[in-house]
Design a protein that fits this description.
about 140 residues, five-stranded antiparallel β-sheet, alpha+beta, two-stranded antiparallel sheet, globular, about 45% helix
């Protein structure tokens, strides 16, 4: 099961966070700082899976953006690694350039892909269908 999903820039600033288990705000801040530090300090030659406390971290870097997913020990790391790539491809397909001004849309995309910590959809067209409907309604 997925515990959390983070998008972080190279400066270590969290750009998006979604938690699928309750974590207090103070603990979230500390958790994010430690997780980000662990991922940013690794070289590109190192594995993208990290054992961390009672869960695993799966991360992937895209230019200046890191996508980090915290999972429990029952989740398949490669499936989550591919989920991250699929998520970024969906973002790339929907947004032409700037995504940080459209975080509501990014949350919708993530919600279409992951529900309560479980991967529910990977088909790009089905993931984008609700957004395209919203766009049509906004245009009219």
């Amino acid at each position: 099961m997925i515990k959390f999903f983070l998008m972080v820039n190279k400066q270590g600033q969290t750009r998006l966070s979604r938690y699928y288990e309750h974590v207090e705000i103070k603990k979230r801040t500390m958790l994010e700082a430690e997780v980000i530090k662990n991922c940013l300090s690794r070289s590109k030659d190192q594995c993208s899976f990290i054992e961390y406390k009672d869960f695993k971290l799966v991360y992937r870097q895209y230019a200046a953006l890191f996508v980090v997913v915290g999972i429990d020990h029952t989740e398949n790391e490669m499936a989550v690694y591919e989920l991250i790539h699929n998520f970024v491809e969906v973002l790339d397909k929907y947004f032409s350039r700037v995504i940080m001004f459209n975080l509501d849309r990014v949350h919708i995309i993530l919600d279409e892909m992951v529900l309560n910590g479980c991967i529910v959809e990977t088909n790009r067209n089905r993931i984008l269908a609700p957004l395209l409907v919203l766009d049509r309604v906004a245009e009219s």
